[in-house]
Amino acid sequence: MVRDSSPKTIKSNPNLTVVIPTYNESEVIDHRIKNLNDINYPTKNIDVIVVDDQSSDGTVELAKEAFEKYGISGEVIVKEKRTGTNASVNLGVSKANTDIVVTTDADVTFEENALNYAIGRLLSDEQIGAVCGELEPIIKEKSFTTSSEKAYRTVYGKMCTWESNIHSTYCFNGPLIVLKKKAFSPIPETHGASDAGMALKIIHNGYRCIYEANARFYEYITDDLSQQRRQKLRRSARLLEATLYNLDLISPKYGKFGLFVFPLRFMMFFIAPTAFFTSVILWSYLLAQINLLYGIMIWIAFFLALLSGNVRSNLVSSFIWHQIYLLVSLTRMFRGMHVWKAVEREKV
User: N or C: which end of the chain has fewer CB within 10 A?
Assistant: First the structure.
């Protein structure tokens, strides 16, 4: 991706609160807190709130030990029962005592200047309520799943940047979101993705939500197809859910976001997958009426394109797979997936 050569920077380091929702993060929580100590941001200006969702693996104790080990101010709030990430985000932001809040995940690593660039962009305009960073996938072993994700990421950030230049994007990368607390409203706890739900609430409140490609963070991408499928379907279903619950944003009241960005995303999420597969079926049927071989060739071409990503990462294969994920997710939107089992955890 072509990045902005002159990212926004900050002249001083405002105090901020970092909210980390956790559930069984013993493999990564020490590393996550250490990263906050290692980045180019004064530790004395960072306060950390770990909101734990009833972990059973020692996450709470390890987080407390990491605060002491790395000299970071922090506390762990253990919820009385497991209620999911959305509820953890709401609780963590409500407990923050700073004007700027960062929400992140336990299994990612911020690049050295990620917070500086994100905060710089956030404070560059009073109308900006939240900024998210760009995910740099870390691939341990090349596989079909990692190749598909790599191809997908080559266009994802460009789309979100284009939307941000128009007005806002709500397709946030949840592991790095910097927001103004005054722009935040509690997100629904039992439906919708936490990151998309957060952005949509902030846009509802009259602010913009911006994608900052220079604020990078790293995340391990699983090479296990079953784990990626489970993760993709959950994320897609919750994103679709958040979209449906905010259809009132399709309105001139919300400027170019309501007139262009949101309607285009709605078509991309709901209409495009159905139209794509319907067209494949219809073309195969129509050509089969001329010659059965022609109809079969359509399906052969379809599956060859789908599986070509196993040989070399490409956008065609990634596009088809993501249309499949979206189509299947349409049937899973209202299954109450606000509590889930995470994919394998790896330190980055």
Answer: N
